Task: inverse folding
């Protein structure tokens, strides 16, 4: 095990998505994290990395319990220096200490930090993905780089995407074409009291413990549109509309509910100076914003579906909350209303209810329109 000086206690300061600076394609904000499923282990294993600032990271190894094996959890804080894009460890402190037989895992995490940062630094251009032109499914889209990585069997292909924080790494594919290190989720802590990184549970393996919900059929009702008009400056307004019906009840200025099974909202997303609707970097930022885990709702990237084209972005995702033991299907539909402005329709439905009424909800999301007046 590496012996380094102890790390002082860290306080998390939340930062705006577009604010912090970093070495890679998009700035990482304090509190952003990423988890990977690591198939190089003989049991179900996940490794996560949390960014505080350019000199402080947290890393966690987690393996859920099995019939024959107890849960394993190792959590450690690192202080690092950055040299030419590579991390060099200068200090560490265990949040959850390892057992005596975990020395190999601790050293492996050390190596991952060094190797993943160093391999990412080799990229000459930021790994921005043009999703409008990408023919591959979301988890296959990105910038592939051939490399040699002994820990994963030698020759590998590493898939990068700027939408992924910290290392921009989506997955590693081995020489046999098997995904051996694959993104499970990205997330963002809400405050220094948020423990969702330290308590991560993979949505992909949570189905057996899910609380089943009696799905409700949405009955026919009189047609009615959900609308919102917002003044933009002194002489313009953004008008948004979704075809719905009387089943929906207004719950706020731009929020509607469908009983206890779904919630819908209309909102707008103004881009910062220098950004433009449709650009690859803008799409990457939007994915970080809308495909991220928050408040213990872990976004399952293995089921993420993204479509971009014709001034429209559609993000279909599924989240799992281990505290409520419920899956939620989340659909975000964005349309470019101006060169620096998107309108956004958000629809969140309990997955059991969504599957029972899929045509109803998909038709609703497809009907979303927005325009400047």
Result:
């Amino acid at each position: 095990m590496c012996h380094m000086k102890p790390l002082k206690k860290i306080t998390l300061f939340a930062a705006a998505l577009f604010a912090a600076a970093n070495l890679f394609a998009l700035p990482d904000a304090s509190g952003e994290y990423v988890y990977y499923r690591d198939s190089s282990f003989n049991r179900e294993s996940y490794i996560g990395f949390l960014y505080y600032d350019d000199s402080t990271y947290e890393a966690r190894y987690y393996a859920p319990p099995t019939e024959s094996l107890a849960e394993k959890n190792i959590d450690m804080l690192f202080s690092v220096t950055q040299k030419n894009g590579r991390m060099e460890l200068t200090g560490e402190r265990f949040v959850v200490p390892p057992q005596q037989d975990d020395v190999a895992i601790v050293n492996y995490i050390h190596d991952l930090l060094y190797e993943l940062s160093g391999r990412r630094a080799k990229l000459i251009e930021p790994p921005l993905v043009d999703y409008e032109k990408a023919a591959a499914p979301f988890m296959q889209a990105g910038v592939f780089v051939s490399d040699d990585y002994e820990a994963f069997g030698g020759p590998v292909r590493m898939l990068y995407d700027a939408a992924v924080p910290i290392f921009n790494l989506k997955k590693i594919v081995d020489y046999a074409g098997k995904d051996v290190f694959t993104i499970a989720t990205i997330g963002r802590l809400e405050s220094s009291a948020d423990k969702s990184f330290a308590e991560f549970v993979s949505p992909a393996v949570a189905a057996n413990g899910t609380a089943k919900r009696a799905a409700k059929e949405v009955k026919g009702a009189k047609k009615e549109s959900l609308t919102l008009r917002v003044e933009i400056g002194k002489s313009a307004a953004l008008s948004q509309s979704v075809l719905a019906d009387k089943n929906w009840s207004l719950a706020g200025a731009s929020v509607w509910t469908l009983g206890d099974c779904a919630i819908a909202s209309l909102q707008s997303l103004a881009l910062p100076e220098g950004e433009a609707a449709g650009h690859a970097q803008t799409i990457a930022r939007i994915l970080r914003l809308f495909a991220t885990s928050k408040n213990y709702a872990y976004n399952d990237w293995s089921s993420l579906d993204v479509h971009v084209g014709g001034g429209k972005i559609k993000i279909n995702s599924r989240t799992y909350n281990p505290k409520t033991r419920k899956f939620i299907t989340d659909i975000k539909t964005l349309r470019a209303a101006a060169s620096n402005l998107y309108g956004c329709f958000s629809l969140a439905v309990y997955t059991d209810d969504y599957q029972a009424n899929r045509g109803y909800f998909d038709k609703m999301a497809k009907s979303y329109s927005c325009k400047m007046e």
In short: Confidence is low (pLDDT under 50) at residues 1-24. Helices lie at 103-121, 280-290, 351-356, 358-366. Residues 103-121 form the longest helix (19 residues). The CA atoms of residues 58 and 84 lie 21 Å apart.
